[in-house]
Design goal:
Blueprint: H1 12-19, H2 21-42, H3 50-54, H4 56-73, H5 83-99, H6 106-134, H7 140-169, H8 182-205, H9 211-217, H10 227-230, H11 241-264, H12 271-293, H13 301-310, H14 314-345, H15 354-387, H16 390-406, H17 418-431, H18 434-440, H19 448-455, H20 457-476, H21 483-499, H22 506-509
Length: about 525
């Protein structure tokens, strides 16, 4: 091949710098995952209401990520293509991290979660596309593995911060009714500074390829067409409008029928989130069809995004099932681990007691352990993928994670919880790297951003489903015992491992990837 049309291989430190912002992103994400349920409970939420309060996070991601991906594919200014979104999201996420632990009432905390998650998504989505932009195909696994390392490292520190603030610094981990402990507050303040600082490092140290250069490189990558042209027009097949109407109409009818059934059967109100969501998704698709067919707006962003969704590459469709069950399991774990461990292992649900807060702090440490192990396993993933395949590595990792998550039910000693966290760390490390490495080799370079954003649907939709049904399941099937949500999550992750059998990773067959994240050459 002509070297002028190939992206140059980047050194270890180049990949380090372009991925460093993920340290800050995961700082914010981990503080949210490990502490928001605790904040909600402290402000008066009951354990079976927590999924509904968490619903802001996935809904926000569902809306924000495709939009940001679409816009970043078509952006070029003095900061570049993706970096403006890194920076904008970091600024607002940092502000939300400062406000969240000072929420005076529950609805303020729920609102801050919404803003925080939207801002994190604005920063996170372009980072996924950044790997496809900056690295040649045979370094994609390496790039996503480096992101996994920073995700794990950031999460270790952030998850452990309340414990560190209490046991090393001496801040109180208890407070009066309705008050957030100082140890948690200061953890969020540190997280805000880290988030912004890490993203600024990537913005300052990494130069993006200009559109003309990316256009030249894209000739040797999946898909055809010009990145420059893609920034100017949608390139939409005008014959897809009727398909949008048909699918949209079916989804609207199904959503309304399901809503009516839920109402007639007097089921819990959170199930409306799922049924109405189906109808709204159908409405969006029908509106896109109307804009395309009747108004002739083939280049409108909504039409482009919906059209891209309906024409997803085969590998992306196959990975969607794996992502759905993987992230259902993760969402169950993030919502219910605090409640499950404090009640099932520590024997208390009273948020004002020292024993509850000791258990909640230990959950933070457990989250730090699985994230830390994921950071370490990230360096081994390219080796294992080279020896076997990316499919096998991901399937085995998910199976280990599913068995580990379900096994928490069998544990009564808090220290023994470290063992399943190591298994969950294996799965988490693979979830953050392997699906994206497989996907990036199967989507067009000119649409890297929007397809990475659309791929987020299969992270968000299972979270909405989990938020809709887990509370109902706990109340009606499991007498409010949060530990059973973790068992359900373990089963879902094991099923995701089975779904990897059907994924076609053609890109891996066409190249020989480097063995590992070796030092600079």
């Amino acid at each position: 091949m002509n070297k002028q049309t190939e992206k140059p291989k980047l050194s270890f430190w180049d990949i380090w710098n372009m991925s460093f912002g993920f340290l800050g992103i995961q700082f914010g994400f981990a503080l949210q995952n490990a502490n928001v349920s605790r904040i909600f409970e402290t402000l008066g939420a009951s354990v079976d209401d927590i999924p509904i309060l968490w619903i802001a996070a996935p809904v926000t991601g569902l809306v924000v990520q495709p939009i940001i991906g679409h816009l970043s594919d078509r952006t070029w200014n003095s900061l570049g293509r993706r970096r403006p979104y890194f920076l904008f999201g970091a600024i607002f996420a940092s502000l939300a991290l400062i406000i969240m632990p000072n929420s005076p009432v529950l609805w303020v905390a729920a609102g801050m979660l919404w803003i925080m998650d939207a801002s994190i998504n604005i920063s996170m989505e372009p980072f996924r596309a950044f790997v496809g932009d900056m690295l040649p195909a045979d370094q994609h696994t390496k790039g996503f593995a480096m992101q996994t390392f920073f995700i794990g490292t950031g999460a270790v520190i952030a998850s452990a911060l309340p414990y560190i603030m209490t046991n090393w610094v001496g801040l109180a981990n208890t407070a009066g009714p309705g008050k957030i402990p100082p140890a948690v507050q200061w953890s969020f303040y540190i997280g805000a500074a880290t988030f912004l600082g890490a993203v600024l490092w990537t913005v300052w140290t990494t130069e993006e390829y200009p559109p003309e250069e990316l256009d030249r490189y894209s000739e040797n990558e999946p898909g055809e067409g010009s990145i420059i042209d893609a920034a100017k027009k949608g390139e939409i097949d005008t014959g897809t409008a009727q398909r949008k109407f048909t699918i949209g109409g079916v989804l609207i009818a199904a959503g309304l029928a399901l809503t009516y059934y839920i109402y007639g059967a007097n089921f819990e109100q959170e199930l409306y989130i799922f049924s109405i969501g189906v109808a709204v998704f159908g409405l969006v698709m029908a509106v896109a069809g109307f804009m395309q067919q009747t108004l002739g707006k083939d280049e409108h962003g909504l039409v482009v995004v919906v059209s891209d969704f309906l024409s997803m590459p085969k590998t992306m469709v196959q990975l969607s099932a794996v992502q759905f069950f993987s992230w259902f399991a993760l969402f169950a774990m993030w919502i219910y681990t605090t409640a499950a461990v404090t009640s099932h292992v520590y024997g208390t649900s009273d948020t004002t007691t020292a024993l509850y807060n000791e258990g909640a702090d230990w959950v933070g440490m457990l989250f730090a352990i699985y994230n830390g192990f994921a950071a370490l396993i990230a360096f081994a993933l390219p080796y294992f993928a080279k020896l076997t395949s990316r499919k096998i590595v991901h399937a085995v990792s998910l199976l280990i994670g599913g068995v580990s998550l379900a096994s928490i039910y069998l544990i009564s000693d808090p220290m023994m919880l470290i063992l399943p966290m190591l298994g969950i760390g294996v799965a988490w490390g693979s979830i953050l790297a392997m699906p994206y490495a497989i996907l990036s080799g199967a989507i067009p370079a000119k649409k890297m951003g929007v397809y990475m954003g659309l791929f987020n649907f299969f992270i968000v939709i299972p979270q909405i489903v989990a938020a809709s049904i887990l509370g109902t399941m706990l109340r009606n099937l499991f007498s409010g015992e949060a530990i059973f949500a973790l068992i359900a999550g373990g089963g879902a992750m094991a099923f995701a491992a089975l779904m990897m059998i059907f994924v076609d990773d053609k890109a891996a067959q066409e190249m020989n990837e480097p063995d590992a994240l070796e030092p600079a050459e």
